[in-house]
Design a protein that fits this description.
Blueprint lengths: L5 E5 L6 H16 L4 E7 L3 H9 L7 E6 L1 H8 L3 H19 L3 E4 L6 H6 L6 E6 L12 H18 L4 E6 L5 H7 L4 E4 L11 H11 L6 E6 L8 H10 L2 H4 L2 E6 L4 H14 L4 E5 L6 H9 L2 E4 L9 H8 L4 E4 L2 H9 L3 E4 L4 H13 L6 H10 L2 H9 L3
Parallel strand pairs: 1-2, 1-4, 2-3, 4-5, 5-6, 6-7, 8-9, 8-11, 9-10, 11-12, 12-13
Length: 394
């Protein structure tokens, strides 16, 4: 790592992986105490977590937390996507002017693409974490999809050929080569999707099984994370309806994660239609830290039946940490990774009939998957490796 740099981490979003990514970078900085200064600029609600990270390591003076005002958060989050890109970028420039960093890391670069291309130049170096590149995906049929694809490629070319962007850290490793070919000067780095692992005891797993009231001899399907329509819950529930009663009695579905009230009503209604033979456990709360891994250790299969998902998904890494096979969508990088690395099985996640066929398969035969490759994936996506990759290039 270069010495005496002043690095500013910027993110207006603080739920889910956003808080996790900041935590990994802060923990690494606190643990290794490099030369220079780290400034964390994000929502006020992250303050307690930030203080807790520093409390464990007293004497760390070269790191500070700068909360973004509620007014600024409301302004950017209430804007349309195109307008939001510029508003977020202007906010970066505002905080940059105040704190004079030598390098800014945009924790969610996807939001900034339009503004970093067409907006004002920054007086500091800029790098970003790129979550969902899809320029290399096969274009879907239809004029609208083709025009959208052209727009994205034009924007991407503009971003990569404008001076100011130094590094792009890419969570979709299949996009790295194509991105580097588009850019004469921006460095493209494959980035781990970080997960912190814990040594979970069998007693912890059995305690959770008892707490959730899961019947013995049922195979547990875990659908974990922020529960919304992108996760493929409705096609999954429609698939469960198609199973025979004896097949339903062999399974337990665990839905674990926060859910919006309106969508919850829709999901509850669909779950009621599945019938009483199928056991379905609802844990509609945010689960954090060590407890997350206990859920994965408890499961037999981890579901990643995302709808036309772009990029990587951390649940696949969490499944790998626990050595559990993944049932995933066959779409995009996620589907490619699960299939080529033998991490489980893929199917058309938009089709209840296809999902039903996959569920019938796991009930009637041993699903082939590579425990060795799951472990390799877990090793490649450690929180330390994630932080090292970023700080070594800023």
């Amino acid at each position: 790592m270069n010495r005496a740099k002043k690095i500013l981490l910027f993110d207006t979003i603080i739920d889910g992986h956003h808080a996790d990514y900041l935590t990994h970078l802060i923990a690494y900085w606190v643990q290794n105490r490099p030369e220079g200064e780290l400034i964390v600029v994000t929502q006020q609600s992250f303050g307690k977590q930030f203080e807790a990270l520093l409390e464990a390591k007293p004497g760390v003076k070269n790191i500070r937390f700068v909360p973004i005002s509620e007014e600024d958060i409301e302004t950017v989050h209430g804007a349309s996507m195109a307008t939001r890109s510029f508003k977020e970028w202007n906010l970066v420039l505002k905080y940059g002017q105040t704190h004079q960093p030598s390098h800014v890391l945009l924790m969610y670069f996807d939001l900034f693409m339009l503004a970093t291309w067409l907006g004002r130049s920054a007086p500091f170096a800029v790098s970003g974490i790129y979550f969902r590149p899809d320029f290399h995906y096969k274009t879907r049929p239809g004029i609208k999809a083709r025009l959208n694809g052209i727009r994205k490629k034009v924007t991407l070319n503009g971003v990569l050929n404008r001076k100011g962007l130094t590094n792009l850290f890419c969570l979709d490793h299949s996009a790295v080569e194509g991105l580097q070919a588009l850019s004469p000067h921006v460095k493209i780095w494959p980035l781990a999707d970080p997960v912190e692992s814990y040594a979970i005891t069998p007693a912890e797993v059995e305690h959770l099984r008892t707490k959730l009231g899961i019947s013995p001899n049922r195979r547990i399907l875990l659908l974990f994370g922020h529960l919304d329509d992108r996760k493929g819950i409705e096609p999954l529930l429609n698939a469960l309806k198609l199973l025979k009663p004896e097949q339903q009695r062999a399974l337990c579905l665990v839905l674990a994660g926060p859910i919006q009230p309106g969508f919850r009503e829709k999901v509850e209604s669909s779950m009621a239609e599945v019938g009483s033979d199928m056991q379905m456990v609802r844990v509609f709360d945010e689960i954090k830290g060590r407890e997350i891994q206990v859920y994965f250790e408890l499961s037999d299969y981890v579901l990643a039946l995302y709808q036309n998902h772009i990029g990587m998904a951390s649940v696949v890494v969490r499944a790998a940490v626990s050595g559990k096979p993944v049932l995933a969508s066959d779409y995009g990088y996620l589907g490619h990774l699960v299939q080529t690395e033998q991490l489980g099985a893929v199917t058309d996640a938009t089709s209840p009939a296809a999902i039903r066929a996959l569920l019938e398969r796991i009930l009637t035969e041993q699903l082939p998957y590579s425990k060795t490759n799951l472990q390799k994936l877990a090793d490649r996506n450690s929180n330390v490796y994630f932080a090292e990759t970023i700080f070594n290039h800023l």
